[in-house]
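Z., the sequence and structure:
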Amino acid sequence: MNKVRPKKNLGQHFLNDSNIAHDIVKALPEEGIEGVLEIGPGMGVLTQFLIPVFDKKLWVIELDKESVSYLNIHYHGLHGRILNEDFLRWDPARTFEKKRFAIIGNFPYNISSQIFFKALDHRDQVPLLVGMLQKEVAERLCSGPGNRDYGILSVLLQAWYDMEYLFTVPAHVFTPPPKVTSAVIRMKRNNRQDLGVDEKLFKRIVKQCFSMRRKTLRNNLKSMALPEDFLLDAYFNKRAEELSVEEYLELTKKIAAVL
C-alpha cells in the first residue's frame, strides 16, 4: 500500500489503496491506444501499475513540484515524460502531436468537470477516459434522461461518448479522507462524427433548458426570443431532464429553423 502526503491546496485526495489503484488501471484497455496521459499522479499509486502495461506510451502531468520531484526520483522509466504543468492549460499537440491518447487519473474534485470539458473539446484525439471523481458527479455524468442527476454535462458528453459507472470507492482509502464518496467511470468515444446541427447552438439550448430545472422547456426557452406560436406546442410542457440526447438534437434543428 502506497502512503502519500496530501496536497490540500490542489483540492486532491490521494488514493492509498494499491488494490483499488490496480482495478482502475485494469479498466483502461491495453490495445488500440497510441498514448496514455495520467492526470495528477501525485506519488505514483496509479503510475506504478501503468508503467508495466503502457511503458513508453505513458505520460503524466502534475502541477505540484514536490510530487514531480518524487516521481523523477522513484520512476526512472518516466524520464522525459513527466509534465510539470496545469492540465487545463496544456496543449495536447505538444505532447502527442496528432496521436489519439487515453486519459486516466484520480481527478482533483475542484476541477473534475473542467477536465471532462477539455476532453470533450479534444474528442477526436481522446477516444477513452477512465477517471476517479466525486460519486455525485460520476452519477451525474452517467445518468440518462428521466433521472434527477441527468444534467447539462450528461447531455453534452453523451452526445459523443458512451458513459459507464464502474465502481464506488469509499473515503477511507484516501489521504486525507474526503467528506464524500468517490467513484470510477469510463467514457468511450461513440461512432458519432457530426451532430447534424450547429454545435454552439446545441450547447446553448441544452444549457438554457437546464437553467431552471423545475421549469418547463417553454419557460426556460423564452429568453431565446422564439416565436410565441412555436412554444405553444405541448412538447414544450416537458422538463429538461425528460429529453434524450437525440431529442435535444431534434430540438436544436427545430429551433434553428425558426431563429
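The mean pLDDT is 92. The two ends are 59 Å apart (CA to CA).

Let me know what you think.
H.
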